[in-house]
TrEMBL record:
<dbReference type="GO" id="GO:0005892">
    <property type="term" value="C:acetylcholine-gated channel complex"/>
</dbReference>
<protein>
    <recommendedName>
        <fullName>TPM domain-containing protein</fullName>
    </recommendedName>
</protein>
<dbReference type="InterPro" id="IPR033438">
    <property type="entry name" value="MOLO1"/>
</dbReference>
<feature type="signal peptide">
    <location>
        <begin position="1"/>
        <end position="20"/>
    </location>
</feature>
<keyword id="KW-0732">Signal</keyword>
<dbReference type="Pfam" id="PF17175">
    <property type="entry name" value="MOLO1"/>
</dbReference>
Length: 408
């Protein structure tokens, strides 16, 4: 938990529109929208208030019609999501975190089922925080990282001051995502981006990255694909090679190939299930059949489990990956999935360097041969040194220490 240093000030400045303070939020009746600084126009506030009030009905679980079902009281398994939005003119990352904690404590949204999503946005700093509880009676496809992606895609509207258009789009995309039903993948059913199914993996061409549930946005997927290419490039000519002495010079100099499979859920939701899926992908993706210097990183984000499997000639202790994932707890906590996976690749390279004691000549940009991927020096430095973590806060659940890692 972050220390809420700014909370006493912000509680006074953020009214509660679900009670008698709706006028201070710019509304004419109780609402789950608060715009105390007048970021939206009056027409935008009216429209967004209507959209928020329709959201729960739009996201209810479909029920087969019958006279008996019509008489049955709705349960938490059927109930839709109740959203709340607070928009302020100024607010740092710590301040929007403080606001969202206050909203969760004091706003009345869904006391019986707690099927809610809270969103706070500061206009001038373009900071936001999203909270989505995980202790629901049924698994919901909508997660905090979904809302975060929809927010990030509205950068142009935010820059031009079109806040009403931006949030109308965000709400529409959010409720559409909330009613989407996703596949629970298993060891025999997951797309292969190397064998003609790259579009199912949301990639424009053959790749070692697959994200069929669109957990990442398009730019993040492309960045992760590039990171995987850089990973293979950086691990070329790395010694010692953990295999017999009669291996060809080609295989000794070849880099390690990393396949990354991201999904919302794996069928069964267990460690054994994700391990079985990862093992099958290592066989079916055929990343490096000749040299067997490949590995698969499989992550089921909503199930909060992962597995890493490697071919026989990958020279790294598999237990090291548990430490790598643990080290990325803050990024997972903030739903920065792409940043976490990129850093895990970086840590793997660093561990291999420590193990080998040296790297080959092909780790310099000048030695890249024709026909090999051209990797810029700043791209290599980005992978090795890491990027500044975005200060956006994404809370993926308060009932599980708000972290993926603690549940792996």
């Amino acid at each position: 938990w972050r220390t809420l240093l700014f909370l006493p000030i912000l509680i006074q400045s953020i009214p509660n529109p679900t009670s008698t303070q709706f006028k201070e939020c710019g509304l004419t009746a109780p609402s789950t929208l608060c715009d105390p600084d007048g970021i939206f126009t009056a027409a935008d506030r009216h429209h967004l208030d209507h959209e928020l009030k329709m959201f729960e009905a739009r996201t209810r679980r479909p029920r087969p019609w019958s006279m008996h079902a019509a008489r049955t009281q709705m349960t938490c398994d059927d109930k839709g999501i109740t959203p709340a939005i607070a928009v302020v003119r100024r607010g740092s990352a710590e301040e929007v975190d403080a606001i969202i904690e206050d909203m969760k404590s004091n706003w009345t949204l869904d006391a019986s089922c707690n099927n809610t999503v809270f969103l706070v946005f500061s206009a001038e700093e373009t900071q936001f925080s999203v909270s989505r509880p995980t202790n629901l009676s049924r698994s919901s496809p909508l997660q905090a990282y979904d809302v975060a992606h929809f927010l990030r895609r509205q950068g142009k509207n935010f820059q031009s001051g079109n806040y009403g258009t931006a949030f109308t789009t965000i709400l529409q995309q959010t409720w559409e995502r909330a009613v989407t039903r996703y596949t629970r993948w298993n060891s025999t059913h997951y797309p292969n981006p190397m064998m003609g199914e790259h579009r199912v993996c949301r990639m424009s061409e053959a790749s070692t990255v697959c994200d069929p549930d669109e957990i990442l946005d398009e730019e993040e997927r492309l960045d992760l694909r590039n990171d995987a290419s850089i990973f293979e490039y950086l691990t070329t000519n790395m010694f010692p090679f953990n295999t017999s002495s009669n291996v060809s010079a080609f295989c000794q100099s070849r880099g390690y190939t990393a396949g990354i499979a991201i999904m919302r859920n794996v069928e069964g939701g267990t460690k054994e299930a994700i391990q079985s899926l990862a093992r099958n992908l290592l066989k079916s993706w055929r990343l490096d059949e000749r040299c067997k210097k490949s590995m698969i990183v499989a992550l089921a984000v909503d199930d909060r489990i992962f597995s890493v499997v490697k071919a026989e000639n990958v020279d790294i202790d598999i237990d090291a990956f548990t430490k790598f994932f643990d080290a990325e707890a803050e990024n997972f906590h903030q739903s920065e999935i792409k940043a976490a996976l990129a850093n895990i690749l970086k840590r793997t390279v660093q561990k291999m360097i420590e193990t080998s004691g040296a790297m080959g000549e092909t780790t310099t940009i000048e030695s890249v041969e024709d026909g090999e991927p051209k990797v810029t020096r700043d791209a290599i430095e980005r992978l090795l040194d890491g990027e500044e973590i975005n200060s956006t806060s994404i809370d993926i659940g308060t009932e599980s220490n708000s972290t993926l890692i603690h549940l792996f």
